[in-house]
From TrEMBL:
It comes from Phaseolus coccineus (Scarlet runner bean). InterPro entries: AA_transpt_TM (IPR013057), DNA_pol_a/d/e_bsu (IPR007185), DNA_pol_alpha_B_N_sf (IPR043034), DNA_pol_alpha_bsu (IPR016722), OB_DPOA2 (IPR054300), Pol_alpha_B_N (IPR013627). It comes from the Eukaryota. It is found in: Cell membrane; Nucleus. Belongs to the amino acid/polyamine transporter 2 family. Amino acid/auxin permease (AAAP) (TC 2.A.18.2) subfamily. Belongs to the DNA polymerase alpha subunit B family. Residues 692-774 form the DNA polymerase alpha subunit B OB domain. One of its GO terms (biological process) is DNA replication initiation. This is DNA polymerase alpha subunit B. Keywords: Amino-acid transport, Cell membrane, DNA replication, Membrane, Nucleus, Transmembrane, Transmembrane helix, Transport. Residues 813-1023 form the DNA polymerase alpha/delta/epsilon subunit B domain.
């Protein structure tokens, strides 16, 4: 065979191979497109994510510049697109099927590739990324609009769903195979654009709409304007695929491809104007500069219509993704088969296209700054390929007459396009950087929605329903932001507010939000004051300035010890003089005006805040005290003291003695205490005969079993449904824990440290699925004698036999410290309380600590010149001595210490106070904390640790959907009775020095007392509790929270209680001091 024949064969073989490749590549595989293919392909390529951001772009440019830029861009890009259509077949017999082929013809094979390919790849890949972001966000918007109560799903997951759809569609071989997809996408673009501006019109103009620029300073205004130019440029990005679209059109000498192509382009551009201009102008007119970078995010109502529009956006960008991805597929597959010699195959196509879709998805997840991303891509890539590169090629190939109309128009387009390419990406990149600083995976509106969902979930977990979700959740998000609260902290604060307000229904109501805001403000103020006190920072007041400028005080300082003659004029008459007042007066610095304290200026003294009266008035037999009574002189008070019979008093010993060693507890002591509690409950369950023998809950079993264990959390932090664990006894499970699934329970109320009985099964050995929960110990009357405590009768030999007829009747006044206000150590509230008790003397005055409060500002600062014991002796005991001397032997005083008492052991359980009063040994006595006593056979339990507030902060509960919600305050107090423990919480609160080495039995409450006193910072109450323990019939208990006698610089509350023999025979009043 001759050399020429060999060359001929090679040429034929090469041509055959090239034809095989062309028939396989997506751009050249089919050339049977119709003119309307050009319409919807171009409409799909042109209208897309860009239309959604045009109102946002207008808000950065203003009415005049914005409208000018939109119209000018429409005209310029239509002109440059016409140029490309004309140049497609400018060389007879050759078609430039790809943008880079036209560039190679104009600039040479190598230079043409480097000029066109990078720009085209950036636009097409960037568009695919932006469409992926848009598709994911649109799907999320559809989900959030249709199902606002559903669990929030992150945008990243929706992006993955969008990419999955495109992964399937990307396997379509060529342009004409996606014609149906493109047609549907074009129809969707017209529909959601129309919905956008129609919904905006329906919404109406925003109140106080602002058409000024979004920026607050000139620098931001300039950068935002330039970035907005890029947004508009990106909206006209269809030029990158126009030659590839025209390559699908058939061409003959009689009917060249440019005729059907141009016909379709004209119709497509009319559609572009119909989509772009109404959305841009109407969207900006309605929302002004408050519009988001996606107008569908700004639109909220009607929700079904906005959800539909967002779904149309999703469908459109799916088609748009395929149109822009097809030229990229063509480039990749051309390189693979021509440069790397891969054989054209389905496997190659599936592999390359799947990798491409996955990469665009990952980039979209990482760069979700929608508006700024459009500005960057529009300026950096779309501006060259759409605005001035076609003009440069036209000048180079057509060579119009210099300074002629065509020449001038092309150079104007080049000048404007180059400016756009340089300035817009700089501004957009700045905005991306600024956005990245504030971005935490979601944009601000998404973060607010996510926080709303988290707040809603926390309320639901705590057993609260929300009345008006949209309004209340929005306000709660604002509270979290303004007061630096997490959703969990916010709900915990709401629980405190809920308890203080004694609200009955577990519903977050709009009417309570203002009060809750006030609660948060007060809480914030207290935190600030506390921080400043701890840092030693002094807050100067007008009093400080007055002291510094008062010349009279300077003069008096020169005469130390100058007496004051108006001492008795300043105070209301009492039979005792405050040592603190004496110290102040003896310095010679105090004037009459400066001894008037905020507490002394209070109004509505001794006002009844709440009362329960089920006693006949004749049995009560006590006169009502009014304000005028408090103004009478001391002689009148003495005359009105009735003769009262002394009550019997028996104290149940706890085993704790003053001066005992503490802080010696070991881990072993704690484990033993927990084990003993669990075993005690286990024995009670078995002895009741109501339950089967408990077994190991950690063992895998398909059958239903019964187990007993302690509720605990799987990690540090607050308990929630997902973190509940059950720790069984060493006897049954070796002390191991197992996860607890409570989903099948209709209602429950649990907290860490609670010992419960659980019915259910553990199919895997890793999670116990509960079907029944018993949170109360079955007891009987005989249980009181299981662990008998030592009882000490006070002056039993002196008790009259006449008192036997008055058994089970008792009058009490109950007050809890602090007993002085936060601004001084004058103990004015205690003085006022004793004055009240002189007029209405009870049989038993119960005072619960703290007496010398370690949290008092003066004690914390160390500005007190007396020891804690001296303060307790002179300000507390001396006043009480005077009191009992005044009222006589008919009244007893019982003191219960607190772990906040600076003069006493900081340990819990806590021994009684040491009171060495020989004259009043039987009248003023102290009780351990916690402690139990009997007065006239009325059993009373006391605990000064704020177990109610601490349990409230740790408890999680669920209320049965068809059941009546239980009063939360009663439920908290019932936990004490059900667990038969004064402090069932474990681990204890940080402020509680729980020591198991002393007398863990002191915490036990094996009997149901008649009265249970639980002072707390939450709002005062008196409630009748019903024991929920099985085996007890109608066991009732009166729970009392007297509040605090002093609150801040003002007065608090105390309780006056007459007990007539049962919970249905009481007269209780909560009185404001």
């Amino acid at each position: 065979m001759s050399h020429s024949e060999e060359n001929s064969v090679d040429v034929v073989a090469a041509a055959a191979r090239q034809k095989k490749i062309d028939d396989w590549l997506p751009v050249t595989a089919s050339r049977n497109g119709k003119w309307w293919y050009s319409t919807f392909h171009n409409l799909t390529a042109m209208v897309g994510a860009g239309v959604l951001t045009l109102p946002f772009a207008m808000s950065n440019m203003g009415w005049g510049p914005g409208a000018t830029v939109l119209f000018l861009s429409w005209i310029i890009t239509l002109y440059t697109l016409w140029q490309m259509v004309e140049m497609h077949e400018m060389v007879p017999g050759k078609r430039f099927d790809r943008y880079h082929e036209l560039g190679q013809h104009a600039f040479g094979d190598k230079l043409g590739l480097w000029i066109v390919i990078p720009q085209q790849i950036i636009v097409e890949i960037g568009t695919c990324i932006v469409y992926t972001v848009t598709g994911g966000k649109s799907l999320k918007k559809v989900h959030d609009t249709i199902c606002p109560d559903c669990k929030d799903i992150r945008t990243s997951y929706w992006i993955v769903i969008f990419a999955s759809v495109n992964l399937v569609l990307a396997q379509c071989p060529n342009f004409n195979s996606i014609s149906v997809i493109s047609f549907g996408a074009a129809a969707m673009s017209l529909m959601y654009s129309t919905i956008s501006w129609c919904a905006a019109i329906n919404k109406g103009t925003e109140p106080d709409v602002n058409y000024g620029l979004r920026a607050t300073n000139s620098t931001d205004a300039v950068f935002n304007f330039l970035s907005a130019l890029g947004d508009v440029a990106f909206a006209y990005a269809g030029h990158n695929v126009v030659l590839e679209i025209q390559a699908t059109m058939p061409s003959t000498p009689e009917i060249p491809s440019k005729k059907p192509m141009w016909r379709g382009v004209i119709l497509a551009y009319i559609g572009v104007a119909f989509c772009y201009l109404p959305v841009a102008f109407i969207g900006y007119y309605i929302f002004g500069n408050s519009v988001d970078d996606n107008i569908l995010i700004t639109l909220q109502r009607p929700s079904w219509l906005i959800a539909t529009a967002n779904f149309f956006v999703f469908l459109h960008v799916v088609g748009g993704y395929q149109v822009f991805a097809m030229p990229v597929f063509d480039m990749i597959e051309t390189y693979m088969v021509t440069k790397l010699n891969f054989s054209p195959s389905t496997v190659l196509r599936v592999t390359t296209r799947s990798i491409y879709v996955a990469l665009t998805m990952l980039i979209a997840i990482c760069i979700p700054f929608f508006g700024s991303l459009l500005g960057f891509l529009g300026g950096f890539a779309s501006a060259p390929t759409s605005y001035f590169l076609p003009c440069i090629i036209w000048l180079r190939l057509i060579k119009p007459k210099r300074y002629g109309l065509s020449w001038t128009i092309n150079w104007i387009c080049i000048f404007l396009g180059v400016l756009l390419m340089i300035l817009s990406p700089i501004a957009a990149m700045r905005n991306i950087i600024m956005s990245a600083k504030d971005y935490n995976e979601r944009n601000p509106r998404e973060r607010e929605r996510a926080m709303e969902e988290e707040i809603k979930s926390e309320f639901k977990r705590s057993g609260f329903d929300i009345e008006d979700e949209e309004e209340i959740l929005s306000k709660c998000v604002t509270f979290c932001i303004n007061y630096s609260l997490t959703p969990s902290d916010l709900v915990s604060s709401w629980e405190v507010h809920y308890l203080n307000r004694q609200l009955n229904e577990p519903i977050v109501e709009s009417a309570e939000i203002d009060g809750f805001l006030l609660h948060l403000q007060n809480q914030k103020k207290e935190d600030i004051i506390k921080e400043k006190e701890e840092s030693g920072l002094h807050m100067y007041t007008i009093g400080d300035v007055e002291m510094l400028l008062n010349n009279d005080d300077d003069t008096k300082d020169n005469t130390p010890g100058t007496p004051i003659n108006h001492h008795h004029d300043i105070f209301s008459p009492t039979d005792t003089t405050s040592l603190m007042y004496e110290n102040v007066l003896s310095s010679g610095k105090a004037s009459k005006s400066k001894l008037i304290t905020p507490f002394s200026k209070r109004t509505a003294r001794f006002a009844v805040k709440f009362s329960i009266n089920t006693l006949p008035s004749v049995e009560n037999g006590k006169q009502e005290l009014n304000h005028e009574d408090t103004e009478n002189d001391e002689d009148d008070v003495v005359r009105r003291v009735p003769q009262r019979e002394r009550c019997s008093l028996v104290i149940h010993g706890s085993g704790l003695k003053p001066g005992c060693r503490f802080m010696y507890d070991r881990t072993e002591d704690r484990l033993n205490a927990i084990e003993n509690r669990i075993r005690k409950h286990t024995r009670a369950f078995v002895a009741s005969g109501l339950y089967e023998e408990p077994t190991d809950p950690t063992s895998a079993s398909q059958r239903s079993i019964f187990a007993v264990g302690m509720i605990c959390c799987d990690a540090e932090g607050r308990l929630n449904e997902k973190s509940v664990m059950l720790q069984s006894s060493i006897e049954h499970s070796g002390g191991e824990c197992v996860r607890l699934d409570l989903q099948r329970l209709n209602h429950y109320s649990i907290f860490p440290g609670q010992v419960v009985g659980i019915g259910g099964h553990n199919p895997s050995g890793h999670c116990f699925i509960a079907s029944k929960l018993v949170d109360s110990i079955p007891t009987s009357v005989a249980d009181e004698n299981l662990n008998p405590s030592k009882k000490q009768a006070i002056d039993k030999e002196n008790q009259s036999t006449d008192t036997l007829c008055k058994q089970r009747e008792l009058s009490m006044i109950i007050a809890a410290g602090p007993f002085t206000t936060a601004d001084n150590l004058l103990f004015e509230p205690l003085t006022e309380l004793l004055q009240y008790a002189k007029r209405r003397p009870p049989q038993l005055l119960v005072l619960l600590g703290p007496f010398v409060d370690s949290e008092h500002p003066d004690l914390k600062k160390g500005t007190v010149d007396r020891t804690f014991d001296e303060i307790f002796h002179f300000e507390i005991l001396r006043k009480l001595e005077d009191y009992v001397e005044h009222v006589g032997s008919g009244t007893r005083v019982l003191l219960v210490p607190s772990i906040r008492d600076a003069n006493h052991d900081f340990v819990f359980p806590q021994p009684a106070l040491e009171i060495n009063l020989s004259d009043f040994k039987s009248q003023i006595v102290s009780l351990a904390n916690p402690g139990i006593f009997e007065a006239n056979e009325v059993k009373v339990g006391c605990c000064t640790v704020d177990v109610l507030k601490q349990t409230s902060g740790e408890e999680i509960s669920r209320t049965a959907a068809d059941g009546k919600p239980m009063d939360r305050m009663s439920r908290l107090a019932n936990h004490i009775l059900n667990q038969q423990s004064f402090y069932p919480l474990y681990p204890p609160a940080e402020s509680v020095p729980l020591d198991f080495s002393l007398a863990p039995e002191a915490l036990q409450l094996s009997l149901v007392p008649d009265i249970l006193i639980l002072p707390s910072d939450i709002k005062y109450f008196v409630k009748v509790l019903s024991s929920e323990s099985e085996g007890i019939n109608n066991s009732k208990c009166i729970a009392v929270n007297p509040g605090r006698l002093a609150k801040g610089e003002g007065g608090g509350t105390f309780v006056e209680l007459d007990y007539g023999g049962g919970s249905d025979q009481i007269n209780a009043s909560i009185v404001g001091i």
